[in-house]
Amino acid sequence: MRYLPTSDAIRQEMLDEIGLSSADELFASIPHDCRLERPLHIPTGRAEADIIAWFQQAARDNAPGFTSFLGAGAYQHFRPTHLDNLIGRGEWFTAYTPYQPEISQGTLQSIFEFQTMICQLTGQEVANAGMYDGSTALNEACLMAARITGREGLVVARSVHPQYRQVLATLTRNRHFPIAEIGYSKDGRIDLTALRAAVTDATAAVAIQSPNFFGTIEDWNAAAEIAHAHGALLVAVIADPVSLGVLPPPAAADIVAMELQGFGIPVGFGGPYAGILACREKFVRQIPGRLVGEAHDSEGRRGFVLTLSTREQHIRREKATSNICTNQALCALMASIFMATYGKQGLRELAEQNHAKAAYLAQACAQAGLDVLFPAPRFHEFVVKLPRPLAQLEPELYRNQLIPGLPLTRDYPELGEALLVCATEIIPRERLDRLVSVLSHV
Amino acid sequence: MSETASITAPETSIAAGTRASRHIVQNEDLLFEVSAPGKRGYQLPSLDVPAAPLAQTRTEIQDFPELSELEVIRHFTRLSTWNYGVDTGMYPLGSCTMKYNARVNEHVTRIEGLGDGHPLQPESLSRGALRIMQLLSDYLLEITGMEALTLQPAAGAQGELTGILLVREALAARGDARRKVLIPDSAHGTNPATAAIAGYQVANLKSNAAGTVDMASLDQLMTSDVAALMLTNPNTLGIFEPDIKRIAALVHERGGMLYMDGANMNALVGRARPGDFGVDVMHLNLHKTFSTPHGGGGPGAGPVAVRKELEPYLPIPVLTRKSDGAPALDYDRPRSIGRVRAFYGNFGMFTRALAYIMANGCDGLKQTTDDAVLNANYLRKKLEADYALPYPTPSMHEVIFSDANQAPQGVHTGDIAKRLIDYGFHPYTVSFPLVVRGALMIEPTESINKREMDEFLAAMHAIAEEARTQPELVTGAPHSTKISRLDEVAAARNPVLRWKPKA
After folding, report:
1. Beta-carbon pairs below 8 A across chains A and B
2. How would DSSP label each residue in B344-392?
3. Are B271 and B144 in contact (CB under 8 A)?
4. Between A36, A73, A294, which is nearest B276 by CB?
5. Alpha carbons A274 and A258: distance in angstroms, whole number
6. N or C end: fewer C-beta atoms under 10 angstroms in chain B?
7. How far apart are the C-alpha atoms of A160 and A152, rounded to whole Å?
């Protein structure tokens, strides 16, 4: 009970002062038949050393030391040392939502800077302070588009992350939004002919991911043109923000739904991450989530406050634009520190390195006789067909401490024994070569 | 020689009357204003594969920051000093449960193999992570008395939505689709927003004079068209619903389900279990009850626990046990509502919550609840003379006063909150719940010692006295901060949401 600052003697003193004889009396308002009259079936409190040992054992039962070529929405990038050092400050991680701006300017200013950098990076005019993650950001972007256009039809590329599409289907199912999925062409990009045919005057949003789930780069402008020709909005989905260091930003899109994990947020078995919504200024009152704005005090000093909250659940209740009540602030802060550290030039170099590693690996796979699918330009992921089922390759892969990528058999069975492979800046050339060697020689 | 220069130079450059310390704590320009072209705070390893040019690349990122590593560190360190956190002092925000965030939780979350594990790595290489999820699920089920659980929702509000979607699915499976969700007027704002997002109409249920569910109103409103009653218990007034079993029975009798918003579980852990008093589905806020840090507004995590009937509808993947007892993920769930978030949810919060439960154990968890309720009642007793209690009903882990005694002097709850800042405390929750005009919602949590509470009480007494004798001192607060009250109305009228370079 080392977290509790109250001794038995002080407890008794306090009970005396409020006129009670025992702690049980504090719970007098709970009817007897609702009370738990036995101890919880949970072991008694454990020492810090025991807890650390338990988690270390759990970590050993995962795959420490393996080189992983997994991406698919969770990307392994180097996290500068000072990042955890900074967010480890109690003033950051033990603070709450900045409801009292006079003593929360740190959080507020950092969010204002975050919003600015996201706008600069995405080519959009407004960014919110963050959503849960990329998958839920896509859902919020589609709901937002439906509010703006007064329509309900959604057209979504099948090359958008499968889990993002599953989340969208779950969270919109009771609104009965018709969702049309558009397939991909032989080159790995969205089938523009099919897209053109699917978008109608009832379409609220066209959602396209680039680089898409297969790692290939889509044409934002072509997609925007098709969407806009019917008065629909283009929702741009980005799974790894690192790609924006070198690829053209989705400036033609109306709403950007992005996952920020690649910017210094630990891969950490899938969360916590942070999503983002950025959009055109004219949609500012429709964007859900928190927004921080500049303000001034009575002496004219600059400060920052939460603003435009009249769209939010705590004021509008059932008429709110969304029920979201968090902005993943600490994760957004990690992204801010990451962006500030790499800066204008570093983000470009980082993206170029990612692209170069994957390009080298894809080329080496092809040279070794493996079938690399989809010839369109890629960023740091690609799809490769395996010469035999993955299960047969696994023993040799694991002996070499390699996790080769994501089997696509569950989400894209039509591709057969295909793997989605990702190479980021942290994987040395020797490991790239080793993967090719194991995949092609067994 | 340079030593002498470096010592004397700053002194001569400081303008008369300016204190050197002002710079460190009071001034920090925006990142963009600290930036200058050509500076860099990174060094990438040299590329060990050939460069690969792209056909189409972006133009440079206009006005993006350029700083050295130390400048980045100074910037974010200085900004941090303007924040009040739990580590700084008492943070009695009602309904937010701002308790101690143990450092061991942070440590274990970052252990190699956990902090860097990939969510899609094969199950055979994820046994440790799955064991963490399984053990946490088991403990949360024991704590709540429920029968099945998903850890997937990313936050409390997403847990609410997941829970309501589960209700909707289960009722549809019974062939009994309903249109409405019943929500007490004292509910969190997320509750009605959630019901609406799930496609339901919201019907409001008025509280009675004791601040609890009015059984007569419930009886009248709980029609065959109501899918669920969304109840917070203890409610947002810090009051345990004494008729909870009758409420559950009535809702069930009429074919609906009882949803419990578990935001206030800090008052119940080890003392009462929702599963034992008729709740069908509930969410937990790991960041409240189980001390995962609030981080300036997130991340949270909002596991949802259900009764057996709702289990088939839980989001995929569902954590199950293989025949040998080892944890596994089940994707083959034909009746599942689908998926509410990518991957498994906020796994990093699961490790923190599990470490917290392990450190406390059954004995510590119960003592924590007892201390949280004791502290709230101690504050209540000591503040009753100065501040009005709108509901004299017994309090659990938080207590709600109103500004009724101070309002005649023109001093309102927001003013008292701002004045508390001058006394060194983070304010309580202002203007919530909506059923109390001028609410002061105070939740000390178990983390505060008596000494700090007595200092808080002394501040509250002093402010009550100031409100009587020199109200303008209170209405003009805070006087001690970096900035005074900001003009939020002007900020909202003409929103400036990003920095732009001066033309």
Report:
1. 658
2. TS-HHHHHHHHHHHHHHHHHHHHHHHHHHHHHHHHHHHHHTTTSB-S--
3. no
4. A36
5. 9
6. C
7. 19
Q: Which residue's structure tokens are 């420490």?
A: A64
A153, A180 Cβ separation under 8 angstroms? yes
Contact B491 A307 (CB under 8 A): yes
Give the residue from chain B lying closest to A330, CA to CA. Answer: B295
Q: Is A387 exposed, middle or buried (0-12, 13-18, 19+ CB in 10 A)?
A: middle
Q: What angle do CA A404, A405, A406 make, to 5 degrees?
A: 140
Specify the higher pLDDT residue, A361 or A320. A361
Start-to-end CA span in chain B (Å): 43
Widest Cα–Cα separation across chain B: 89
Distance, CA of B374 to CA of B392 (rounded, Å): 16
Indicate the pairing of strand A275-279 with strand A255-259: antiparallel
Has residue A281 got a pLDDT over 60? yes
pLDDT tops 90 at residue A45: yes
Q: Would an 8 Å CB–CB cutoff place B6 in contact with chain A?
A: no
Distance from CA of A223 to the nearest CA of B (A): 16
Pick from B40, B341, B496: CB nearest A132:
B341
Neighbours of A242 (CB within 10 A): 26
Give the residue from B446, B352, B370, B6 showing the smallest Cα distance to A330: B352
Chain B residue numbers touching A29 (CB-CB < 8 A): 239-240, 242, 393-394, 396
- Model-level pTM? 0.96
DSSP string, A95-129: -----SGGGBHHHHHHHHHHHHHHHHHHT-SEE-S
Contacts of B77 in chain A (CB under 8 A): 86, 89
Contacts of B140 (CB under 8 A, 6+ apart): B149, B284, B303, B305
- Nearest CB among A99, A107, A315 relative to B83 is that of A107
Could you tell me if A126 and A284 are in contact, meaning their C-beta atoms sit under 8 angstroms apart? Answer: yes
Short-list B151, B29, B323, CA closest to A105 = B29
CB contact under 8 A, B426 and A103: yes
> Which residue(s) pair with B329 in the sheet?
B319
Minimum distance, in Å, between the CA of residue B315 and any CA atom of chain A: 9
Q: Which residues in chain B land under pLDDT 70?
A: 1-26
Which B positions 423-462 lie with beta carbon below 8 A of chain A? 426-427, 429-430, 432, 446-450
**Hey, how many other C-beta atoms are within 10 angstroms of the C-beta on B180?**
18
DSSP A388: S
**Residue A427 C-alpha, separation from nearest chain B C-alpha, in angstroms:** 10
Cα atoms in the 13 Å half-sphere on the side-chain side of A277: 33
CA of A195, closest CA in chain B: separation in Å?
A: 23
pLDDT of residue B354: 98
Rounded to the nearest angstrom, the minimum Cα separation between A125 and chain B is 8
* Interatomic CA distance for residues A305 and A295, integer angstroms: 7
Return the percent helix, strand and coil in chain B, to nearest 5. 40, 10, 50
pLDDT digits (tens, 9 = 90+) for A205-214: 999 999 999 9
Residues of B in contact with A172 (CB under 8 A): none
